[in-house]
Design a protein that fits this description.
The chain has 483 residues and is of the alpha/beta class. Helix content is 47%, strand content 17%. It folds into 2 domains: 253 residues, Rossmann fold, CATH 3.40.50.2000; 209 residues, Glycogen Phosphorylase B (Rossmann fold, 3-Layer(aba) Sandwich), CATH 3.40.50. The longest helix is centred in the first third of the chain and has 21 residues. It is globular, with a radius of gyration of 23 Å.
Amino acid sequence: MKTPSPRLVIVSARAPFVRTSNGIARAPGGLISALLPLMRRSRGTWIATGADRDPCDASEVPFRVRALSLPSEIRAAWYAGASNGALWPLAHGFLEVCRFRAEQARAYLEVCRAAADAAAEHAPRHAVVWVHDYQLALVPALLRARRPDLTIGFFWHIPWPAAESLRVLPWAAELVEGILGADLVGLHVPRYVRAFHDTLDELGVAYMSEGSSIVVPKGERTARIETWPIGVDVEGWASLGRDENVAAEAERIRSDLGGGRVLVSVDRMDYAKGIVERLEAFERLLEQSSEARERVTLVQIGVPSRETVAAYRELRQRIEATVGRIQGRFGSPRRKPVHLFARTLDATELAAYYLAADAAIVTPKRDGMNLVAFEYVATRPRPNGRLLLSTFAGAADVLSEAHLVNPYDEDGLASAIADVALAPETASDSARMAALKTRVSRLSVETWASGFLARLEQVTEERVPARERQMRLAASAPVSRAR
């Protein structure tokens, strides 16, 4: 009889539960939805570094939650500083926003050490530990040094930066070495794996290519870097799309908006999402088309984000000013061409807007994946509607039947919005959406999570002895060294 899987330990910045006015509730987000069933089955431990007040005593769950106790100044330097003031803009290509400060880098290391210590303490022998995202990239190597018996996975949920961009990070080598402490490293799409390949060349790290994967010898083991595109809770969104109350709310929304063509965009208020550029492109469409001025409405749902960071506060002001200008130019007492909701909407509310919208406009300047595109497709019961998608979102590599657009092309973006907003839907549009629904259904977040963990255990079981790896490496073509 097969030995039961070892207990699972999750390490992430966010806890799986939040406190609300009605008590403790599940935290929002597809990742939480995917991991909770796995944690319930494994009866393991979830270690969260985000906030001391994260709930650790949620009832009716057979696993433990441990929120790390960290000094507030260390937590701020790690999260707002090194993570979101340096790594986030770097990974998304906004080098001019990056700030690299030594004290923030030290805080980042301190938090990663604390997370590694907690995982080492709570993980049973030979357990599986899955570390998540850029805020905790040093944890795999730190944990490996403490507990070499563990099987360690790591997932980087944002774009992997180009090697030329990563060069500006003073601790780039340490970042990559930290990640390579994992047995299996997951990135969303093949282009991120290729960028990681370039990074290893840049840093002079020896590796081998095996198909689309990268294998890095690390002493008696290897680190494998692979593509693992994440999805959404497909059945959950589809169920909302079939719900009669949600459908009735969608009809009410369309009626309230005047019964014309409805466009929807859903984003965190982040400079990587291209919200201002999208609004300006829509403004240009209104300038050029009397039909758009009379019949097309854009609903922009903007979830406030990281408002302790100056760049995010300034962005919100720009978004609100742009909406105000559009309303002033093209609005009337009976019609508002743009509706901005600067708040978080729950899944049921979002589903109603997805059903109401003739098209979803998903045009980030850069995005690791962007699951709004998946949610829109999954929610719609029939293969209708249109998805306008940025080529710089990871989702574009997966959802190739979407209407793809370069968000940096001002004329092209305005023209693409006009096409999905004004042109009648055709059989070709139905075929596109049907193909998108098939793709989305195959990439559920549950399949992603269970598949990654199964692959992680497989990778550790199939380890090739280090000596053989080194011999194979020596026989392969020379690896580029740091330039």
